[in-house]
Design goal:
The complex is a heterodimer of chains A (160) and B (168). Chain A has three helices and four strands. Chain A has 160 residues and is mostly helical. The chains are: A mainly alpha (160), B alpha+beta (168). At the A-B interface, β3 of A face α1 and β6 of B. Chain B: It holds the Pfam family Ribosomal_L14.
Chain lengths: 160, 168
């Protein structure tokens, strides 16, 4: 039994659900429900459809790189059954889920901070540009931006 | 690729036209233009069984290119994925093992109608295709093209599975 990912929305497809479409070049598309399947038949690009995970990742709404994603990579080698290993894995799964969820929440919080501070900077630069240019005696125009909110830590910036 | 998607857009009620609209783009481009015009009002296409007069692609190198189903050997409504059919060769390669007009048996290896698997999921393919076999069930050709389902293993068509490139 294997939990697959829907090709369109990237949610998990549990056994007994969904349709699997095999194209003639032997590429298999799995869909979790008919909504995703119908969108696929309409030839919609999941990266442009707002409610899919692909869109959210591309537009920086959800985090893309994290060490917790390493655990969900597809492994095609079967593991020899080891009772201790199985027990440890089963214990670890909810812990990893919790860590991932907290990291995602932090990403969302930082994202809203970042977006609002970017808006603020754009607003400030906009007002400065519209005002007459400063004296050319000073080589470079420098100004301190004072934001009312704290800028987020730099490695959480979405990569553009 | 685009042709097969676009041809799916038209609504066809009978699989009489089902075989025609699922064709490889090179052959039936005129019918594809025609069906595209009334496409987007009815986006979903009903896929049904493989029955009499269904034209199927041949997925092996036995010499035939297209066969038309004469009889589905099992099933009241028609054949599905993995069933055998009796077919008449409609189009063949000039020097092949089977000639046009011959009556042959075939195993359906790809069906556009979805088939339920025992784990509850459903599979469907892009087109309808057969592999020609003899009365005993041994394939006539030596190669099989395209993906095949592993439902064939349960139907004891192991030879076809060994010849196949991909098993879906």
């Amino acid at each position: 039994m294997r939990l697959e990912k829907c090709w369109f929305c990237s949610s998990t497809v549990y056994p007994g659900h969904g349709i699997q479409f095999v194209r003639n070049d032997a590429k298999i598309f799995r869909f979790c429900r008919s909504k995703c399947h119908k969108n696929f038949k309409m030839k919609r690009n999941p990266r442009k459809v707002k409610w899919t995970k692909a869109y959210r990742r591309v537009h920086g709404k959800d985090m893309t790189q994290d060490s917790t994603f390493e655990f969900e990579r597809k492994r095609n080698k079967p593991e020899r059954y080891d009772r201790n290993l199985a027990e440890n894995v089963l214990k670890a799964i909810p812990k990893i889920d919790k860590i991932r969820v907290t990291r995602e929440e932090r990403h969302h919080k930082n994202r809203s901070l970042l977006e609002s501070s970017i808006m603020y900077i754009v607003w400030i630069c906009g007002t400065l540009v519209s005002s007459p240019p400063p004296h050319e005696k000073h080589g470079r125009r420098c100004f301190a931006i004072r934001t009312s909110r704290r800028l987020p830590h730099k490695d959480i910036r979405p990569h553009v | 690729m685009a042709a097969s998607f676009a041809s799916r857009c038209s609504r066809v009620s009978r699989s009489l036209f089902g075989g025609l609209s699922n064709n490889s783009p090179g052959l039936f481009t005129t019918s594809h233009e025609m069906t595209c015009s009334n496409s987007f009002s009815q986006l979903q296409q009903q896929r049904t069984f493989i029955q009499m007069r269904t034209v199927l692609k041949v997925a092996d190198n036995s010499g035939a290119k297209k066969v038309m189903c004469i009889q589905a050997l099992k099933g009241k409504k028609g054949a599905r994925l993995g069933d055998t059919i009796v077919a008449s060769v409609k189009e063949a390669h000039p020097n092949g093992k089977v000639k046009k007009g011959k009556v042959v048996y075939g195993v359906v290896v790809r069906a556009a109608m979805q088939r339920g698997r025992c784990d509850g999921s459903e599979v469907k393919f892009d087109d309808n295709a057969v592999v020609l076999v003899d009365k005993q069930g041994q394939p006539i050709g030596t190669r099989v093209f395209g993906p095949v389902p592993h439902e064939l293993r349960q139907k004891k068509h192991v030879k076809i599975l060994t010849l196949a490139g991909h098993i879906a």
